[in-house]
Amino acid sequence: MSKLYVFGIGGTGARVLKSLTMLLAAGTDCDVETIVPIIIDRDISNKDLSRTKLLIEDYIIVNKIAKTNGNNKFFKTNIHLLNNELCLQLRDNTQKFDEFIGRSTMSNENEALVNMLFSKETLGLDMTEGFQGNPNIGSVVLNQFDGNDIFKAFASDFKDGDKIFIISSIFGGTGASGFPLLRRILHTPNVTGSDGKVLAKWGLINKAPIGAISVLPYFLVGSPTDGSLVDSDTFIDKARAALSYYKNEDKKIDVLYYIADKLTTTYEHHKGGDAQMNNAHFVELAAALAVLDFVNPEKSGINFHRDKDNNIERTVYKEFGINTNLPEFTFDNLSDETKRLIVNPLSRFLLFAKYMGFGVEKEQKNGKEKFVVKHIERNDIFKQENKYQPYSHKRFTDDFRKINSIQKLESVQLKFVEWLLEMELQNRRFAPFNLMSSNATDFIKGNMSVFKNDNSRYKNWSKIDNELNNQINKINKSMDNESLFIELFYNMTSEIINYKN
Amino acid sequence: MDEILGKIYCWFESIFGQYLAEYLWGYNCETQVYDGKNLFNSIGLIAMSVSFAFVLAYYYLPFWGFNHPRTNRWWNWLIILIIASVINFFIGYSWTINDFLNGNIGDCLMYIRDSDGNIISQLIYEKDCWLFGLSNFFVSVMFFIIWSLLLKWKSRNCKNSPHSLSFRKSN
Questions:
Q1: CB–CB of A229/A125 below 8 Å?
Q2: Which chain B residues are within 8 Å of A355, Cβ to Cβ?
Q3: Spatial distance between the Cα atoms of A213 and A188, rounded to a whole number of angstroms
Q4: Which chain A residue lies closest to B168 (C-alpha atoms)?
Q5: How far lies A313's CA from each of A252, A309, A366, in Å?
Q6: Per residue, what are the HEC states of A49-86?
Q7: If exposure means fewest CB atoms within 10 Å of the residue's CB, which of A27, A77, A313, B116 is most exposed?
Q8: CA of A412, closest CA in chain B: separation in Å?
Q9: How many other C-beta atoms are found inside a 10 Å radius of the C-beta of residue A120?
Q10: Are the CB atoms for A486 and A74 separated by under 8 Å?
Q11: What letter does residue A269 receive in the DSSP assignment?
């Protein structure tokens, strides 16, 4: 089975990778065995990136117990990090843009040219917090991919049949400039490593199937208070300018996906760093679906048009849409294809998370009501029942939850519920679940037949325990306990929830 | 073989008395041999059947809250055990009290009489019937435990109930 190398550029790249990881954790079908994520961001301290990094680290640990040789799809797709690094380390560590370009050592003529091309604010920009919506800086600073160690690892890891996908936003700095630069280096022949030698197998990379998604504006930022150069009034203009430049990418990319949303949420303004943490958004989930669409073998006839020399004959352009333009929407408003892809995995994984006690509660904070994602002791059915139910008897005791892989699994479940809640709190609210519900069989909104055997004599969580007790008798018990646990819960959830359209 | 149940009941003979036991063994005062019906077998088989039915229901019946993930606690099992045993208690009592009141128990087992036929003392009292019911309760408990041990292993939701009866590792 092949690998897919996914480059996530900038904050949007990191957030889409987070959504992709959530989909894979939930067991969404992905037709490659391994995903290799690589994040390119100058602002390595931004919270979006660190949240994605923590999630992927947890995922990798849980993935080890998810190889059950059974039916399990939770965490099934491997995520592999090149050189154990998620982020591509840029070679320089200069802070200011004028330091990066060496303005102080330039001749008077060159300095005058630089002063003409870049404003004073741009030259003095602190790049440790990214390019703050300046693709003109990004295109200069990021032009250092070749010779990078991670590219050496990328080249030596790459095999025939592997694919490449690039995720970037078009309306900021890092993504808009990084995408064409990265695409260009991937198609440059005979790229050399830091030792000056041509990277082996780079020819395979030059000819590899390549897809990309450009995320157009889908959020705004408030007025700057910290001297930031990010200005959401310029997002549309920047996107338009970048799109006209991206015309050059025609026939250089197999599939180019676009996505945007007019109903935007305005985030608090932060130029970067630890404070830059945007809530998850459905656009990011849809962008992650583009990655899965790209590797779907059933779509290969539509997605790839190559001549006999394996050159791209034409680029396929795709956009994502929902059936009805509503501020709040559920699974009902998605196309049949999207429903087929995500209804079962998201619902099943949420059922699993709810059984383990993860949910949403309203809390009063500073006189304001706030939704909080937490482990709710009284809703922890596993804790209440593991002493009594045959599926867990002498197998999944209280100590079982102290095992590292199970702790990581629960950590992902908490983040998963957070992710769902964040998507619900946007102005364009994707709210397919009633996250406050403590019931096992009424948490999916909409008019869909999702739960099987609704006439069962077992109600609520006893229905779940009954199915777990049933499934434990059918499972091959030769695997270790942690794998058995994940296989058991996958089998149970797929027996309880089975949406077909 | 047909004396097994009687021997089990005789573990409790000191509770309900030797003379009632003799009657239940089938002692005939006229022939002075045990040629009557062995009532231990009849009552014992009923006790076994009632226990079996309740155990089967608890572990396998697909309705009325039996074989249910929320009734697999040890106290749920204990409640069913008590219900089955109380039923057997009344079966034991009503069977013997019926025979006691209807004069089915032979005179030689009921009284000691002098040579004129006057009653010197009574050998079986009504309270002995209650005590036999109690003995039947204990026998029923025993049967319930044995049936539970034999039948629980294939139950979907209650196979580990009660945990104290799990003398082997369940799969």
A1: yes
A2: none
A3: 21
A4: A394
A5: 9, 10, 59
A6: HHHHHHHHHHHHHHHHHCCCCCCCCCCCCEECCECCEC
A7: B116
A8: 28
A9: 9
A10: yes
A11: P
The length of chain B in residues reads 171
Instruction: Inspect the interface and report whether the beta carbons of A390 and B63 lie closer than 8 Å.
Output: no
- Chain A residues near residue B171 by CB distance under 8 angstroms: 477
Task: Please name the residues in contact with B58: beta carbons below 8 A apart, sequence gap of 6 or more.
Answer: B66, B67, B71, B76, B77, B80, B148, B158
Nearest CA in chain A to B153: A390
In A18-87, at which residue ranges do the beta strands (DSSP E only) sit?
34-40, 78-79
- pLDDT bracket for residue A229 (50, 70, 90): low
pLDDT at A268 over 60: yes
Per DSSP, the three-state class of B121 is strand
Look at the block and give the residue holding tokens 């109600």. Answer: A459
State the pLDDT at residue B95: 95
Q: Does the pLDDT value for residue B31 go beyond 70?
A: yes
Q: Tell whether the model's pLDDT for residue A130 goes beyond 80.
A: no
Q: How far is CA A471 from the centre of its chain?
A: 32
Chain B residues within 8 A (CB-CB) of chain A?
A: 62-63, 68-70, 72-73, 155-161, 163, 166, 169-171
| Count of beta carbons in the 10 Å neighbourhood of residue B7 | 10
Mutate which of A381, A382, A387, A393 to disrupt the B interface (most B C-beta within 10 Å)?
A393
Largest CA distance in chain A: 85
Lookup result for tokens 């047909």: B2
Q: Which pLDDT score, from 0 to 100, does residue A85 have? A: 85
pTM: 0.87
Tokens of A12: 């949007």
Q: Identify the pLDDT of residue A447.
A: 83
ipTM attached to this prediction = 0.83
How far, in Å, CA of A248 to CA of A211, rounded? 15
Q: Dihedral of the CA atoms A214, A217, A221, A226 (nearest 10)?
A: 40
Shortest Cα–Cα distance, A486 to chain B (Å): 17
Residue type, A243: L
* Strand extents, DSSP E, B11-162: 111-113, 119-122
For the CA atoms of A170, A171, A174, A179, what is the dihedral angle to 10 degrees? 10
Bigger pLDDT: A90 vs B48: B48
Of B68, B73, B159, the CB nearest to A390: B159
Contact A462 B156 (CB under 8 A): no
Partner-chain contact A469 B160, CB within 8 Å: no
A388, A457, A477 ranked by CB distance to B72: nearest: A388
- What per-residue confidence (pLDDT) applies to B63? 79
Do B143 and B46 contact (CB within 8 A), yes or no? no
Please judge whether A458 and B69 are an interchain contact, meaning their C-beta atoms are less than 8 angstroms apart. yes
Per the model's pLDDT, the better-predicted residue between A501 and A467 turns out to be: A467
Name which of A104, A167, A95, A177 is nearest A137 in CA terms. Answer: A177
Taking contacts as CB-CB distances below 8 angstroms, the residues of chain A near B156 are 390, 466, 469-470, 473
User: What distance in Å separates the CA atoms of residue B41 and residue B3, rounded to the nearest whole number?
Assistant: 8
Residue contact B157–A465, C-beta within 8 A:
yes
Reply yes or no: is the peptide bond before residue A217 cis, omega within 30 of 0: no
Q: What angle do CA A383, A64, A284 make, to 5 degrees?
A: 85
List chain A residues with CB under 8 Å of B163: 393
The SS3 assignment for A214 reads strand
